[in-house]
Amino acid sequence: MTSEETVAVPTGDRVRDTRSGRGARRRPGPPGEPRRVAYLYLLPGFVVLTLFLLAPLVYAAWLSLFAWDGLSPGTWVGLQNYVDVLTDPTLRAPFGHALVLVVFFSFIPVVLGLFAASLLTRSTVRGRGIFQAVVFVPQVIALTVVAVAWKRILAPDGPLNDALRAIGLDGIARGWLGDPSTALVAIGLVGTWLGTGLCTVLFLAGLSRVDRAIYDAARLDGAGFFRETLAVSLPSLRNELAVALTLTMVAALRTFDLVYLMTSGGPGGATAVPAYEVYMKSMRQGDVGTGVTIALLLAAFIMVLTVLVNRIPEREDR
To answer: Can you give the pLDDT of all 318 residues of the chain as single tens digits?
Structure first.
């Protein structure tokens, strides 16, 4: 060993340099950069989040405290806009319509997707890849195209009524989007058509990770298709179920395109939903305060619902 070489000898909390005799205390904590450096890495993302999400949200909350038409100076009304939305049946009704759409956009597609995925997993089907591609097609079609196509199908002289008349069911044929008792259901069924493919593909991906031996054991125990689906497939899809419910529920609650293009909230407000009411109040009726209030309440409701749905996989971890 030459005179220029150094030997580091650990001595408790110090590392001593044998050449210089100087000691340097070890830095406490985990190895790597200091925590303040990590915050610097996060700073650009936090700035973007603040500018494009948090700041507009705070500004929207401020606007909801005014009666403002978007042009002239606003009038301070405090929480009156919130009171109006929560107490006025006309303003509350769109939230009820949105909950009805949740059934069609979310719950029904999840059930149909679960059973379709279980059926495809249970048996060997030729062309399974083609089937997945076909059922997923609605997800890649622009909602504008979907709305225009289904509006034509459901028209009084559309293909659906023509088919009903052709088989002698003239009494059932009607203007599906012009009847207050069927308009919301018709839009909901379009949402079912849109969401079923997404749920099916998600569940197929989840079931592909399940050991086939579990299904074989269930069949040896005499489990039929429905029992196998509920006892084997469903417990294995907690994460995928949470994702499917989150995506489809959010899609249902923020629906605007289909309503605007198919019914414009009619007939008689039977298909009005919160997102459409935000547009009408803020852009068409000059009541920005009420429109922003509806938007904030909708955002809060979506956030709470998302948190509750995402507790599904957490229960499995426990």
So the answer is: 444 444 444 544 444 444 444 545 555 555 566 778 888 888 999 999 999 999 999 999 999 999 999 888 999 999 999 999 999 999 999 999 999 999 999 999 999 999 999 888 877 767 778 888 888 899 999 999 999 999 999 999 999 999 999 999 988 999 999 999 999 999 999 999 999 999 999 999 998 888 888 888 888 888 888 888 888 888 889 899 999 999 999 999 999 999 999 999 999 999 999 999 999 999 999 999 999 999 999 999 999 999 999 887 766 555
Strands 75-76 and 66-67: antiparallel
d(CA 13, CA 283): 68
Q: Tell me the helix, strand and coil percentages in the chain, rounded to 5.
A: 65, 5, 30
Contact 228, 122 (CB under 8 A): yes
Query: Domains of the chain (ranges plus CATH)?
Result: 81-317 (1.10.3720.10)
Global pTM reads: 0.83
Beta bridge partners of 75: 67
